[in-house]
Design a protein that fits this description.
Elements (H helix, E strand, L loop, with lengths): L2 H19 L5 H9 L7 H6 L14 H7 L26 H4 L7 H9 L10 H5 L5 E6 L7 H10 L3 E6 L12 H13 L5
Parallel strand pairs: 1-2
């Protein structure tokens, strides 16, 4: 299990324990949860999280928040019913710009970015990617919870001069995981040096 997956599993157990014993999340648990999303050192991540995917005349209009509103099952935060508590993964919501002190000054900018609908085209045509001459080395994670395996594989195959390896021993956070980042870079260098099949 990747370090991030382990942290999430431990946090779920801790939060469940708080609810079982106290009926609410304790301050130490909430503090530890907040530390999983260090916006005091990574505010730009929150600010441009949705904007980096936009192109053309499309605004995100807080896409993750809008989609979640369409799926009420994700709004269940109660353990007193038989419905599961569902997770959304790596999303940023407008409420976070009110909840996190370090993000509060960025709330107006976040709203502007969310409503902005004049973005350049990221890719002028698929042909440009297939004509790529710059060497690209990539890893594709079979069990990536954020990027669909089939889509990642299809994309890698469509990029000219792209070499990739597929693995189920690393996850989305491999580059920041102790032990796995060394393995990841070793495999990428092997691709570059043409010593990997």
């Amino acid at each position: 299990m990747g370090s991030l997956a382990k942290q999430v599993a431990e946090m779920i157990l801790r939060m469940a324990s708080d609810l079982d014993y106290f009926g609410y999340f304790t301050r130490p648990t909430l503090t530890q949860f907040e530390e999983l999303q260090p916006f005091d050192v990574l505010p730009l991540y929150a600010l441009v999280h949705e904007a980096i995917y936009l192109q053309g005349n499309n605004a995100s209009n807080w896409s993750a928040d809008r989609i979640m509103q369409q799926h009420p099952a994700f709004m269940n935060l109660s353990t007193s019913n038989d419905e599961p508590i569902l997770f959304t993964g790596e999303m940023i919501y407008p409420s976070m710009f009110a909840d996190y002190t370090e993000l509060q000054p960025l709330a107006p900018t976040a709203d502007i970015l969310s409503s902005l609908s004049s973005w350049p085209q990221l890719y002028n045509s698929p042909q440009k990617l297939s004509d790529n001459k710059v060497p690209v080395y990539a890893s594709i994670y079979i069990d990536d919870m954020y990027v669909a395996y089939d889509l990642a594989l299809e994309t890698a195959k469509s990029i000219g001069n792209c070499k990739y390896f597929v693995t189920n021993t690393m996850y989305h956070d491999a580059i920041g995981t102790t032990g796995k980042s060394e393995e990841l870079f070793r495999k990428l260098w092997e691709l570059r040096d043409d010593v990997m099949d």
